[in-house]
Design brief:
Its cofactor is pyridoxal 5'-phosphate. This is Alpha-1,4 glucan phosphorylase. Pfam families: Phosphorylase. The chain is α/β, with parallel strands linked by helices. It has three domains: 100 residues, no CATH class; 294 residues, 3-Layer(aba) Sandwich (Rossmann fold), CATH 3.40.50.2000; 239 residues, Glycogen Phosphorylase B (Rossmann fold, 3-Layer(aba) Sandwich), CATH 3.40.50. The protein has 33 helices and 25 strands. Strands 1, 4, 7, 8, 11, 12, 13, 14, 18 and 19 form a ten-stranded mixed β-sheet that branches. Strands 22-21-20-23-24-25 form a six-stranded parallel β-sheet, sandwiched between helices. A three-stranded antiparallel β-sheet has the order 15-17-16. Helix 22 crosses helix 29 and helix 28 crosses helix 29. The longest helix is centred in the N-terminal third of the chain and has 30 residues. The two termini are 25 Å apart. Bound molecules: the ligand CCc1ccc([C@H](C)CC(=O)N[C@@H]2O[C@H](CO)[C@@H](O)[C@H](O)[C@H]2O)cc1. The ligand CCc1ccc([C@H](C)CC(=O)N[C@@H]2O[C@H](CO)[C@@H](O)[C@H](O)[C@H]2O)cc1 binds next to helix 6.
Length: 818
C-alpha cells in the first residue's frame, strides 16, 4: 500500500464534503458549528490541495524518472494574487466545491473573501513571473520557480487626506494554507569573510572562508496546470538563523544579544523592497539576491539532480532564466560551486555556465539598471567579486582580440564601471554570461540592441532576441471575466482557454448585432459588479452610463499619470470657465490605481494631486455628475481582476521608448476595452494586431521623442503655445485643488514647465485631441462594441502560453515532456 501512487479523493460532491469536513475537524480541529470563516477557508484550501496532491507527487516522480531538461525561473518577485479560485479552476472542482459547500450551508464566495493575496512583488515584473509559471505548468514543461518568501510583501496603501500612507503587509498573520514548509531541507547560505588560496595536492586553488551564515528554509507552493493533471513547484526561501538561540549568552542575562543572530538572519527575507525602478543599493537587497540564488542553485545541484550527475551535462538538464538583473549573482555563484567545490577547470566551468543562463531585461530606464559597488560586493561576497573580475578580464581580452586596443570601447563594455564609484554593472555581467538576452516587446528589444547594449549586440551576434510578454488567460479572462468567458465559449467552445489564438474566430461574431448586444450586456454586468465591489471596499459610487476610463499601474513619471489628470483638469476647467456646457460632456469616470515607491517624492505628490482633483471635481455640481475621478487605494491583483473586465478605455500613455512592454495593456484588450496609447512597448504590437481603426493612437513615436530631445526640449514653449494646457496648469498652480495653497502642487507644475523629462507637455495636445475622438466614438455604442469585440478577437497572441512557446523555441529548448 505504501508504494501505491497517491490517489486523489473522489471528485464528487459527497467526496468533496467528506474531504472538507475531514480537514475542518482534523486539520483545523474545529466542528462546522463552531468554525470561523477563516477555519472554513483553510479547510477548503486544504481540501483543494488534497485533490491536487496526487498530481503534484506524480509529476515530481515522473520528473525524477524522466530527467527531462527543465526551466529554473529565478525571480526576486512573484505577484501571485489569490490562489483559491485558480486552484479550483485548474483542478476543475469549482462547481463541485460550490455545491459541496452549499450542502454544508456555506457560500463559496464568503470563503473567497477570506484569502489574503500574497503581494510578493511590485508590479509588471512580478506579475509576469506569476503568469509564466502558470503557463509552463499548463504547457507541461518541467519548471521550478525560485524566489523569496517575504514575511511582508508590497505595502498596503491607504490615503490620508489624499496622500499615500504605507502600512506593513502582514499577509502571513493567519499563515498561508497554500505553502508546504520543509525546514528539514534547509540550505546553509554564507556571507562575508575572506578568500584564500591553498595548495590542493599540488594544484593552487582559491576558496571562500565565510564570516557568517544563515539557514534558507524552502516553502513549496503548488503551480497547477489548467486541467492537464500537471503541477509544477514554486519554491520560496525563508531566512532563519543557523543557531537561533545562544543559551550561553542568554544565561549571562543578555537576552537581546541571545536572539540577535535570529533577528539579524530573519531580516534577509523580512520584507520586499518596494522600489520598481530605482535601486537603492542597500546591502540587505544584495543579501536577499544572493540568499535565494545560492539556495536555489544548491537545491538544484544537490537535491534535484541525481547524486552521480555528470555536471558537464548540466546545460542539457536545466536553464536558469534570470528575471532581470536581480538574480544575476547566480552566475559567479555557479562558477564558485563548479570551480571551488566541484574542482572543475575554470574554462570547463565557464563553458557550462554560459549555456546554463539566459537573461530577460525588463526596463529601459538607465537608473533602473542595477550596479553594485565593488566595496559592498567585496565585503559581502569576496569570492564572487574575484570571480567577476576573472570573467571580466577574460571578456575584455576577447574584446581586445576582436576590436584591438580601443580603450573607449573597453571602458564602455567592461563589467566593471569606474563612475561614480567602482561598481559591477549587473546587466553587463548578465549579457556576457547569458546564452541569450531578450527584451519583452519588439520595440524594447530593438532599443536594447540599438541604444542600451549596442556594443554587446555587435560583439555577440545572435545573442539578442525578443519575446513579447503575455498574460495568463486563466486568471485574467476565464476567472476575472466569467460572463465574457461564457459568451466566448458559447460561440467557440472552451478550447480558447489553452489556445488563445482561437479568439480570432470571434471576428465574424463582431458583425452579429445580437452578439454585440450580448457583449454589451457582459460589459454592463462587469460594471455593476465593479460598482458593488468599490461601494463595499471604499464607499465609492460608480455612476451608471459613464465611460470607465481606467489607468492602473505603478505610479511613475514615465507612465505619465500626469497626462491623464491634465485631461481631467482640462475638461473641468472648460466647464467651470463656461466655455463648455456640462451637458455636452460625454459622461466619464476616470479610475486610477497606483502605488508609489515610498521614497519617490514626486510620485507621491502626483498621487496627492489625483486625489485632490478628484475630491474637487466629484463635489462640483457644475459638472452635473458627468465627470468623476475614483482612486481606490491599494491597487493589487485582486482589484485588477475586478476593474479590468469593467473598463471601456485602457490608458497606456507612457512616453514612447520608456515602457518596456506593459502587460496591463494586454489584459484590457483581452477583456474588451479599447486602448488610447502611444507607440510604446507592446502597444505597438497590440495596434498592429487589432488594426489602427480599433486603437486610439496619439503622441510622438520613439524616434520623434529622440529628435525633440536632440533639438532641445523646452516644455515652457508648449505651455505658452497651448491655451488649454496653460489654463489647466494655471488652475493647478492656483491652488484650486489644494484649498488655495499654491505651494502644495508647485513642485509638479514647475517640474513640468522647466524639466518634464517625460514630455507630458509635448504630447498633451495630441492626447487631448485623441480623447475628443474617444468621446465621439463612444457615442456610437454599437460601433464601439464591435471594435471592442475585434480587440478581444485579435489579441490572443498576448497569451503567456505563446510567450512560453517563444522562450522554448528561441532560448530554452525545453519542450513539454511526458
Ligand atoms: C531594483 C529596483 C527595480 C525593481 C524592479 C524593476 C522591474 C524591472 C520593473 C518592472 O516591473 N518592469 C516592468 O516589467 C514588465 C514585465 O516585463 C513590463 O511589462 C513593464 O513594461 C516594465 O516596466 C526594476 C528595478
Amino acid at each position: 500500500l505504501a508504494l501505491a501512487p497517491v490517489t486523489a479523493p473522489a471528485s464528487t460532491v459527497d467526496g468533496f464534503v467528506r474531504e472538507f469536513l475531514q480537514n475542518l475537524n482534523f486539520n483545523r480541529g474545529v466542528a462546522l458549528s463552531t468554525s470561523s470563516a477563516t477555519d472554513r477557508y483553510f479547510a477548503l484550501a486544504y481540501t483543494v490541495r488534497d485533490y491536487l496532491m496526487a498530481r503534484w507527487l506524480e509529476d515530481l516522480r515522473r520528473q525524477r524518472e524522466v530527467q527531462a531538461k527543465g526551466v529554473a525561473y529565478l525571480s526576486a518577485e512573484y505577484l501571485l494574487g489569490r490562489q483559491l479560485d485558480n486552484n479550483l479552476l485548474a483542478s476543475g472542482l469549482t462547481d463541485i466545491a460550490s455545491e459541496a459547500l452549499a450542502s454544508c450551508g456555506i457560500d463559496l464566495d464568503d470563503l473567497r473573501q477570506q484569502e489574503v493575496e500574497p503581494g510578493l512583488g511590485n508590479g509588471g515584473l512580478g506579475r509576469l513571473a506569476a503568469c509564466f509559471i502558470d503557463s509552463l505548468a499548463t504547457l507541461g514543461v518541467p519548471n521550478t520557480g525560485y524566489g523569496i518568501r517575504y514575511e511582508y510583501g508590497i505595502f498596503r496603501q491607504t490615503f490620508e487626506d489624499g496622500q499615500q500612507v504605507e502600512q506593513p503587509d502582514s499577509w502571513l498573520a493567519y499563515g498561508s494554507p497554500w505553502e508546504f514548509p520543509h525546514p528539514e531541507a534547509a540550505q546553509t547560505i554564507s556571507f562575508g569573510g575572506h578568500t584564500e588560496t591553498y595548495d590542493d595536492g599540488g594544484v593552487q586553488r582559491s576558496r571562500w572562508v565565510p564570516g557568517w551564515n544563515v539557514q534558507a528554509v524552502p516553502y513549496n507552493y503548488m503551480v497547477p496546470g489548467y486541467q492537464n493533471g500537471r503541477v509544477n513547484t514554486l519554491r520560496l526561501w525563508s531566512a532563519k538563523a543557523t543557531n537561533s538561540f545562544d543559551l550561553r549568552v542568554f544565561n549571562s542575562g543578555d537576552y537581546e544579544e541571545a536572539v540577535r543572530a535570529q533577528t539579524f538572519a530573519e531580516n534577509i527575507s523580512k520584507v520586499l523592497y518596494p522600489e520598481d525602478s530605482t535601486p537603492q543599493g542597500k546591502e540587505l537587497r544584495l543579501q536577499q539576491q544572493y540568499f535565494f540564488v545560492a539556495a536555489s542553485i544548491k537545491d538544484f545541484l544537490d537535491v534535484t539532480l541525481p547524486k552521480d550527475f555528470d555536471l558537464t551535462k548540466l546545460p542539457d538538464r536545466i536553464i536558469f532564466q534570470l528575471n532581470d538583473t536581480h538574480p544575476v549573482i547566480a552566475v559567479p555563484e555557479l562558477m564558485r560551486v563548479l570551480v571551488d567545490e566541484k574542482k572543475m577547470e575554470w574554462e570547463d566551468a565557464w563553458a557550462i555556465t554560459q549555456k546554463c543562463f539566459a537573461y530577460t531585461c525588463h526596463t529601459l530606464l538607465p537608473e533602473a539598471l542595477e550596479v553594485w559597488s565593488v566595496d559592498l560586493l567585496g565585503h559581502l561576497l569576496p569570492r564572487h567579486l574575484e570571480i567577476i573580475y576573472r570573467i571580466n578580464d577574460d571578456f575584455l581580452d576577447a574584446v581586445r582580440e576582436r576590436f584591438g586596443d580601443d580603450e573607449m570601447r573597453i571602458r564602455d563594455m567592461s563589467i566593471i564601471g569606474e563612475h561614480p564609484v567602482r561598481s559591477v554593472r549587473m546587466a553587463y555581467l548578465a549579457t556576457v554570461a547569458g546564452a541569450k538576452v531578450n527584451g519583452v516587446a519588439e520595440l524594447h528589444s530593438q532599443l536594447l540592441r540599438e541604444k542600451v547594449l549596442p556594443d554587446f549586440d555587435e560583439f555577440f551576434p545572435g545573442k539578442f532576441t525578443n519575446v513579447t510578454n503575455g498574460v495568463t488567460p486563466r486568471r485574467f479572462v476565464r476567472l476575472a471575466n466569467p460572463e465574457l468567458s461564457a459568451l466566448i465559449t458559447d460561440a467557440l467552445g472552451s478550447g480558447w482557454v489553452t489556445d488563445l489564438e482561437r479568439l480570432r474566430e470571434l471576428e465574424t461574431h463582431a458583425e452579429d448585432p445580437e452578439f454585440r448586444a450580448r457583449f454589451a450586456e457582459v460589459k454592463a454586468a462587469n460594471k455593476r459588479r465593479l460598482s458593488a465591489v468599490l461601494r463595499e471596499r471604499d464607499g465609492f459610487e460608480v455612476s451608471d452610463g459613464h465611460m470607465l476610463d481606467v489607468m492602473v499601474k505603478r505610479l511613475h513619471e514615465y507612465k505619465r499619470q500626469m497626462l491623464k489628470i491634465l485631461h481631467v483638469v482640462t475638461q473641468y476647467e472648460s466647464v467651470i470657465s463656461g466655455r463648455v456646457v456640462a451637458a455636452d460632456l460625454q459622461p466619464r469616470t476616470a479610475i486610477f490605481g497606483a502605488k508609489a515607491a515610498p521614497g519617490y517624492a514626486m510620485a507621491k505628490n502626483i498621487i496627492h494631486l489625483i486625489n485632490a482633483v478628484g475630491s474637487v471635481v466629484n463635489a462640483d455640481t457644475r459638472l452635473e455628475g458627468r465627470l468623476k475621478v475614483l482612486f481606490p487605494p491599494n491597487y493589487n491583483v485582486t482589484l485588477a481582476e475586478r476593474v479590468i473586465p469593467a473598463a471601456d478605455l485602457s490608458e497606456q500613455i507612457s512616453l514612447a521608448g520608456k515602457e518596456a512592454s506593459g502587460t496591463g495593456n494586454m489584459k484590457f484588450a483581452l477583456n474588451g476595452a479599447l486602448t488610447i496609447g502611444t507607440d510604446d512597448g507592446a502597444n505597438v504590437e497590440i495596434r498592429e494586431l487589432v488594426g489602427d481603426e480599433n486603437f486610439f493612437l496619439f503622441g510622438m513615436s520613439e524616434p520623434e521623442v529622440e529628435a525633440l530631445w536632440a533639438r532641445g526640449y523646452k516644455p515652457a514653449e508648449f505651455y505658452q503655445a497651448d491655451d488649454n494646457l496653460r489654463r489647466a496648469l494655471d488652475l493647478i498652480a492656483s491652488g484650486a485643488f489644494s484649498r488655495g495653497d499654491r505651494s502644495t502642487f508647485e513642485p509638479i507644475v514647475s517640474n513640468l514647465l522647466y524639466d518634464d523629462r517625460f514630455m507630458v507637455l509635448a504630447d498633451y495636445s495630441s492626447y487631448i485631441a485623441e480623447q475628443v475622438k474617444v468621446d465621439a466614438a463612444y457615442a456610437d455604442q454599437d460601433a464601439w462594441n464591435r471594435s471592442a469585440i475585434l480587440n478581444v478577437a485579435r489579441t490572443g497572441f498576448f497569451s503567456s502560453d505563446r510567450s512560453m512557446r517563444d522562450y522554448i523555441d528561441r532560448i530554452w529548448h525545453t519542450p513539454p515532456s511526458f
